[in-house]
Amino acid sequence: MKTAEIREKFLQFFESKGHLRLPSFSVVPQDDPTLLFINAGMTPLKPYFLGKKPVFPGHEGEWYRVTTCQKSVRTGDIENVGRTNRHQTVFEMLGNFSFGDYFKKEAIEWAWEFLTDPKWLGLDPTRIYVTIYKDDDEAFEHWTRVGVPPEKIHRFDADENFWPQNAPTKGPNGPCGPCSEIYYDRGPAFGSDTWADYYETRESNRFVELWNLVFPQYDRKDGGVLEPLPKPNIDTGMGLARVAMVLQDVTDFYETDEFQPLIAKIVELTGISYEGPSSVAHRVIAEHARAVTFILSDGVHFSNTGRGYVVRRLLRRAVRFGYLLGLREPFMYRLAEVVAQVMGGVYPELKENLEGVQKQIKIEEEQFLRTLESGIKRLDAMLANLKPGDTLAGRDAFTLYDTYGFPLDLTIEIASEHGVQVDTEGFEQALEEQQERARAAAAFSKELFKRSNEALAALAADYGGTKFVGYESLEAQAQVKLLLVGEQTIEEAPAGTEVQVVLDRTPFYAEGGGQVGDAGVLEWEGGWARVSTTQKNPDGIFLHIARVEEGTLKAGSTVRALVDMHRRDTEKNHTATHLLHAALRAVLGSHVQQKGSYVGPDRLRFDFSQFEPIAPRDLARIELLVNRWIQADFPVSYTYKPLEEARKEGAMALFGEKYGDVVRVVSVEGAIDNVTSKELCGGCHVRRTGEIGAFVIVAEESVAAGVRRIEALTGTGATQYVREMLDRLGGLSRELGTTPEHLLERVNKLQDELKAREKEIEKLKLDLARAQLGGSAAGISLKEANGYRYLAVKLEGLEAGALRGAADELLDRHQADLVAVGSGQHLVVKVSKKALERGLDAGAVMKKLSAVAGGRGGGRGALAQGGGFDLEKAFGALEQVLE
């Protein structure tokens, strides 16, 4: 019975018993901050167990019986996934639930009917066993009544058959109750243990738990008091993969019909066959591919915290195992498509979100593969000096983590494959020391800031913050309220002094919201100072970072503050970022959110949420939309409004900004294609969009997983950039003997010619290999060791591809069990099908040769290859390796 059929039968069965069928909830809990993920079928239904009326959108009335197949995530034992037959991170939980309606009698009768009736699953009733809570005589009575012999019912304590586990003695307070687990005997083919053995060991591959019926019938109070609930509930969970495993009579869930397409794709990508439980890498990749696809499809993104960290850890573990199978390019994103094909019918979000999920995965894979390469090389160097039984120092593991971003769990996993332990306590100590240094540095910096700002705090208390008058004017008369040099307050600053100047009012914009601080000059009778930038402290006091060029600047004096005219260029770029933001959302979608920005006089930079590169056509549309706003010469206005009112009007809030109760709203008074721009912003802007002049995008790139960056120019800078690009285009066209209009055609032709010559070179290399095999290598005779016939051949001027072809030809020509073919420092080892069946493994041979002949290689089964070898030593060691 296919997994999809089992799922459908279960839901149909309970619909026939008056249950409402609900689709799976997202794996991301709604309104439950205590959970990272939905971890059981009942989890999203908790409010209804606690008394909330069971009303569901799209379904009339109240439903006290519900059935679901719920996607669930459990990540407590990630390291065991792939190594055992039981552990999964993402699984499907079949469940039927009663909110104070039916109880044990119906739950047990229906479970028995569904499992044993030939109309449904048709399992052999004589092979069903049950466990119950030690004092649950009611469950015992119902089980024996439906036909389970008493000797097939085990009673266990609250550590095994109570939910939550040990609730009577340990809590927590709240709804709880006994449970009853249903097991199926798969027969002696899966183990020689008996049901009596299970009672002693609680471990078995033969007796598989299929279903857990939970009977929440008590309200636990302080002191372990169990008060009967006025309306007891039913909460059951049956693992779909386990049922499929039993009905399909396979060893484990990796061999069921939903996992086999994934395994087959992994075999296709790696060229390495799946050998069942011993193929841990295949199993890890398949399981984690499913988990990552499910979680991302429900809206989670890769990150360094929370859910995003969990899914990142799953992906990286799978990529690491793919690396062991020889995969050096992103591959997990391809498996996401298989997951969607297999399971998208019942979970449509897998297909609907596939494109975005694949793009996220590929970006994350590319980044981690770079980390993996550098980290593995460093770790290998560390492990080379250790032998099995040794311990890798915690500080070395921390160096990998701190310098290379190499996760500790991967260090432990790789080290364990060499028989080496990792000093995790030493790692934690090194991590704590680094954190302590960071805290100490932060404390010092805060103390220094505190001392230097005592005068600023007093000034803020007396006068409030600096009054900013720079929205409308670039100059103002102002009084010097304070002069600071480092942490010291001074009364006057002679020529040559670097000083922080505090004015009572200023036209200088202080750095914030992505916009750079203004530069300019301060003038007074007999002197002047150059302002390099302007900053603002938390009390709203502006600090003009200046150098006195002539005369002496005195506290209390009056100055003329003049902002550099480059501010006008900054204003163009700032307004352009607002237009760009609106254009991005219009063209790409409302998922675009600002993640950071830089606005200066020279350029603008805008970071935003997006999981794929922007297509050239879309980039052109975005650029055109901004330029149409500019050409329309719309007025740009600003008003002050209550924050909530501004948000209701649709004003966009900017990344990293903190807003007060009243906010400044900057609006472009006009729409292009019904697209408008309105944002909360304290920055400086043009009066009309036409002042921007022109807008050109000069770069679009990734800066982090799921975050893209656009850099652009406006005004004169944009015009100069276009002129430079046209000049380069013309020069390149002349070099290639064509015109700018035909440049792409010319480049494509040259690329075709290059590819044709590369193919010709590859053919010549193969011809060279064949020529050598027919010449000097033809006389080489087979050798034998440990019952294996082998051949070692050194060729000249060949790379890995040609060497693999030569190895195939030698295997066929000489009927050898193993062939080692090398050229330069390259080495290829191939094993015949018969030798493979006898247990000879090319990867194992390559590993041994690496130990004696240097180099590094990998592979498994019939093929292994590598580089950096001393071929004479490698060939000389073959006999010893085979022995």
From TrEMBL:
Q: What's written under domain?
A: Consists of three domains; the N-terminal catalytic domain, the editing domain and the C-terminal C-Ala domain. The editing domain removes incorrectly charged amino acids, while the C-Ala domain, along with tRNA(Ala), serves as a bridge to cooperatively bring together the editing and aminoacylation centers thus stimulating deacylation of misacylated tRNAs.
Localization per record: Cytoplasm
Molecular function terms from GO: alanine-tRNA ligase activity; aminoacyl-tRNA deacylase activity; ATP binding; tRNA binding; zinc ion binding
Its keywords, alphabetically, are: Aminoacyl-tRNA synthetase, ATP-binding, Coiled coil, Cytoplasm, Ligase, Metal-binding, Nucleotide-binding, Protein biosynthesis, RNA-binding, tRNA-binding, Zinc
Q: What is its EC number?
A: 6.1.1.7
An example of a Pfam family matching this protein is DHHA1
Residues binding Zn(2+):
H574, H578, C681, H685
Q: In this entry, which stretches build a coiled coil? A: 744-774
Species this protein is from: Meiothermus ruber (strain ATCC 35948 / DSM 1279 / VKM B-1258 / 21) (Thermus ruber)
Substrates-to-products reaction catalysed? tRNA(Ala) + L-alanine + ATP = L-alanyl-tRNA(Ala) + AMP + diphosphate
Q: Which InterPro entries match?
A: aa-tRNA-synth_II/BPL/LPL, Ala-tRNA-lgiase_IIc, Ala-tRNA-ligase_IIc_anticod-bd, Ala-tRNA-synth_IIc_core, Ala-tRNA-synth_IIc_N, Ala-tRNA_ligase, Ala_tRNA_ligase_euk/bac, DHHA1_dom
Co-factor remark: Binds 1 zinc ion per subunit.
Essential cofactor(s): Zn(2+)
**Gene Ontology process terms (BP):** alanyl-tRNA aminoacylation
Specify the Alanyl-transfer RNA synthetases family profile domain's residue ranges.
1-724
Its EC top class is ligase
Q: Which family does it belong to?
A: Belongs to the class-II aminoacyl-tRNA synthetase family.
Keyword Zinc annotated? yes
Role: Catalyzes the attachment of alanine to tRNA(Ala) in a two-step reaction: alanine is first activated by ATP to form Ala-AMP and then transferred to the acceptor end of tRNA(Ala). Also edits incorrectly charged Ser-tRNA(Ala) and Gly-tRNA(Ala) via its editing domain.
Taken from the UniProt entry, a GO cellular component term is: cytosol
| Entry superkingdom | Bacteria
What name appears for this protein in its UniProt entry?
Alanine--tRNA ligase
Does this entry carry the keyword Heme?
Answer: no
